[in-house]
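Cross-check.
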Amino acid sequence: MDEVDRAERAAQGNWHAERLTGAGVVGVALTWVDTGGITRVKAVPTAALARAAAWGVGATPLFDFFLPDDSITTGRYSGGPSGDLRLVPDLSRLVQLAAQPGWAWAPVDRWTQEGGRHPQCSRALVARLTDQLAATGLTARAAFEVEWVLDAGSGDDVVLAKGGPAYGMTRLIERSDFAAELLRALAAQGVEVAQFHPEYAAGQLEISVAAESPMAAADTTVLVRSTIRAVAARHGLRVSFAPCVIAGRVGNGGHVHLSVSREGRNLMCGGEGRYGLTGEGEAFIAGILARLPALLAIGAPSVGSYLRLVPSQWAGVFGCWGRENREAAVRLITGSVGDQAESANVEVKCVDLSANPYLLLAALLAAGLAGVERSATLPEPVDVDPASWSDEEQAAHGVARLPQRLDEAVAAFVADPVLAEVFGPELTDTVVAVRRAEIERFAGADPEEIVNASRWVH
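Predicted model, tokenized:
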């Protein structure tokens, strides 16, 4: 970042500060997501936004090594207490927070004091992968589904804030005021909600948003989750996005939807392949499918993630794909006849909201791009629940269970050359260090202990 860039950013910051001050905003929350999937924040008074935009806000590099319980591990690239980074807000995503009067929000990029991008900045990684995709003429669009459990308790107690049957209108009626305020807040913040409904698990709700660029999609899911928390707090409620909220019950997913296009044409439809896939669309999906075990170290990064990955619960625990198959880890959504160009996409179901969304999208793009580069093809699709097959039938169909523990996923990640190259040595080493520390933290713990320790963290 040179002097001209700083001057331009300072001018933009001043303009935004004047606008926000006129609207009664006194502070701006600046957020990033750490390796363990926790959204961290530093805030500045609105009057200090221009300086923050030009010079950033200081933060220790040790945040890369934080675990979800706020303990700090070490790694090959951990600098200890020494060193500093600059948190530079992305003013293009600056928004006044509808559910937090007096506050605005912006995500940050992390820079070194020398003016370069921090090699472990997850937003920078998404930008780089998006550029690599663009260099081949491809454009990606993405969106996260956000599932959460609404709770009316305090402390460690779980007091589900909604009753009624799964997907039932009763649940919406019980928390109608909360739901209406949430939708109003998201609309005021420019978030396009595609769908909102009660989900399967007790006390569970879900919001789906419109597809955007990968960076925008990751930013939006951070904003959506923060808004859900803020609206819930205003109603005396709290939320859990943890992959498993009650041991032995269905958990929260964070499914990712992806599509790729070339020259404006959606490559997930209109082709001559199965279900209308184009060759490049199939190759992109095949690249993701082939790397699912390694991708779980990014997309299912907590020990509790594997309590959610249970067969026959629509969690996608088998490494297969299928058209509209909710038990496949990769679900092809073709859309209705006449709407395919707009709606055809692929859904990755085996991931959850304990993941850093920037790292997850970068990993998925890298896997998909690797598939395109080698013209990968998909195996035969699966249209049943693979759990209904015997072990012999699963083997005959080439369908294998995905990792059932975090250490298995980490081993696959370490062995994957594509992801290691894309993430780079520093970020790869840090991901592994944080995951192994999380594994050690819960060594010998039973599901109840794991869930109790993570329920109100994610």
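Residues 128-454 form a domain with the Creatine Kinase; Chain A, domain 2 fold (CATH 3.30.590.10). Residues 297 and 410 are 5 Å apart (CA to CA). Passed to J.P. for a second look.
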